[in-house]
Amino acid sequence: MLAASVVIVGVCAALMVWRQRERSQDPPPPPASPNMARFPAADVYLGVFAALPDVCRQLPVDENCAEWRHPESVRATHIAAFELDRKETTNDDFSAWLNTHTNDWSLEADGVVTDRKKHLPLLATTACTGDLSISPGGRAELTAGAAQRPVTCVTWYGAEMYCRAQNKRLPHEAEWEFAAKGAAGRLFPWGVDTDHLDDVAYHLSAPRAVGTSAKDVSPEGVYDLSGNVMEWVQSERNTPDKWVVRGGSFLSDQPCRLLGSKCARISVKNVGRNVGFRCARGVVEPSQQERTQ
């Protein structure tokens, strides 16, 4: 009996050594796409920032998702590792997708591009944006100079369908906020200073080409989280009729509206000339693969 026990213990020890050796040889996660920034798993305290200026506390509640009254009451939201597009989706990106799937949508009389299967509005053209239009032949066409500007006037459905077609999805709100403020809870994607804000796309008549605002970039290389266009996200704060967008836009009229806490709720079917999006995707790390085997 004692000999058998020794054998069992020896086998178990050998299995543990083998398992540890296998783990040490696990390959790292696949490299991030050059067009996406990778973020590690983290606990995010939604709405909690390092220091919110008093002047910014005057923003209406429906424009600011910062919890500055009782930050100690906020519970952590765990997010898995993810990747986020470095730049907002452009008119060129979106029009190329439409032109690749012309049988999946139709143009309604009011200039709204509508999904044929679910009859959901995807994009408003004539009534909202001059950057992207639909030709009589049913092709998406761009105004000169508009290709690299962010696509706007897109509904949540249009943004999500586009991302899914790229094997991605819209970012969760906690992911978006973590990308904007980092673990330190910085006020703006670039830090705390408000110098050289002419290098942020705000207080303008139109958005800039994505990724061209030299100030508006995070340490991880994600552009335009403060300005250019507000961005659709997935959120637990959604209500049946209104869904969350995050960030400021080219129409923002003051620095407080560029904070990482900037948010709004608009109709899921609504479009705006200052509303766009970018895509995200989860990252399956070796430890996660191991648990599923």
Q: Count every helix, treating DSSP H or I runs of 4 or more residues as helices.
A: 5
Mean pLDDT across residues: 87
Q: What letter string, H or E per element, gives the SSE order?
A: HEEEEHEEEEEHHEEEEEH
CATH 4th-level superfamily of the domain at 38-90 and 148-286: paralog of FGE (formylglycine-generating enzyme)
What's the story with the biggest beta sheet? 4 strands, mixed
Helix share bin: 10-25%
CATH class of the domain at 38-90 and 148-286: Alpha Beta
- Major sheet: order of its strands? 12-11-10-13
Tell me which CATH architecture of the domain at 38-90 and 148-286 applies here: Alpha-Beta Complex
- End-to-end separation: 34 Å
Round the Cα radius of gyration to an integer and report it. Answer: 23 Å
Could you please describe the fold and organization of this structure?
This protein has a domain at 38-90 and 148-286: paralog of FGE (formylglycine-generating enzyme) (Alpha-Beta Complex), CATH 3.90.1580.10. By secondary structure, it is α+β, with helices and mostly antiparallel strands. Helix content is 20%, strand content 17%. Strand 6 (112-115) and strand 7 (121-124) form a beta hairpin.
Short overview:
With 293 residues, the chain is an alpha+beta fold. Helices cover 20% and strands 17% of the residues. The protein is built from 5 helices and 14 strands.
Task: Please give the structural blueprint.
Layout lengths: L1 H23 L11 E4 L2 E3 L32 E3 L2 E4 L5 H10 L4 E3 L4 E4 L5 E4 L7 E3 L5 E3 L13 H10 L7 H9 L48 E3 L9 E5 L16 E5 L7 E2 L3 E3 L3 H7 L1
Parallel strand pairs: 10-13
Antiparallel strand pairs: 1-4, 2-3, 4-14, 5-6, 6-7, 8-9, 10-11, 11-12
